[in-house]
Request: fold
Amino acid sequence: MNHFNKPINRLNTSSLKWDSIKIRTEKENVLPFWVADSDYMTAKPIMEALTSRIKNGAFGYTYIDQEYLEIVKNWVWRRYQYRIEKDWIVTTPGIVPALFFAINALTTPEAKIIIQSPVYNPFYSVIINNNRKILENKLLPIDNTYQMDFINLEALLKEGAEMMILCSPHNPVGRVWTEAEILKVVKLCKQYNCLLVSDEIHCDLVFKEYPFISIGKYFHLYDKMIICTAPSKTFNIAGLMTSNIIIKDLTLREKFKRELSIRSIGDPNLFGIEACKAAYTKCDDWLEAQVKHIQKNAMLVNQYFKKHIPEAKIAKLEGTYLMWIDMRFMHLTSEALVKKLIDYGIFVNPGAMYGADYDGFIRLNIACPQQQLQKGLEIIGKFVAEYK
Reply:
């Protein structure tokens, strides 16, 4: 059996995705297709590395050693062809906290910050909770995909935006931005002296037809950029709370590190460190196999909807394992859609959480065995057929 089609029982493991369902829905036996982690075991070398570390038996304080930094440095060069120095890497327990601290440390009070909606919902909260102002550069829906609105983006930059948070690849619309698009964003941010922060957590999970381009390829053009990376989504180790924030500019980096120190934010735990080392040195084949599995799952979703729910519009998936589905033909709010789907036995994310203009959309996590996905699709199909 394909490793990624092998069922794994995640119940009673303190899984947010599975074990909190009963609390959130007040129902039993609801299949989760919501929070972005995957429903298959991580790569064997990672499990072996963690097992070996556990056998040592002592789990005291740890630190980020030179081997770890060298491994991260080599990973970004080997996979994405941009060079960094080891001292550019700042570790944090997660990317969302890093975004929060970057906003607080590197922008002025009440600063304007650009995001591209529909977008990962914590982008909104980290800005609001820092008492900054959101500027929405809404993505343009064109056929079954989304494009950046560069005319509006430049207008917002002219307003004096101090920071732009780029989601690359984009969650939830599944775009992998082209080299031309990334370069244009970098040049615009440079022109208007705007700090560009790129959340690249899904960068490993892209289809070969859509090569990922990091903003890091353009550090030679513009220093005022921050790249947020992590092995968490790629290798299903989000619970190990390990992220690598890449900051070339010394002044920005020292301000960011000072913010972490003031907040008493330490390095990742020792298991996260060991897992990242193994992931970035021994798991390339596993990663490639996973990407192929996700692509097959995306094809399954598209085929099922085309046959059974043709009225829905699915954004073309180029990267991530999150599918963005326009269900507005049902004439239901996202909240109503989610509640009704829960009654049928499936839990998905409501589109409105990614932006007020996306009521009636849903986000579907397809990082699971195909049998589980097929069951989820049939539940959605049954709901739509009976509701219509």
Observations:
- The first helix runs from residue 16 to 19.
- The mean pLDDT is 97.
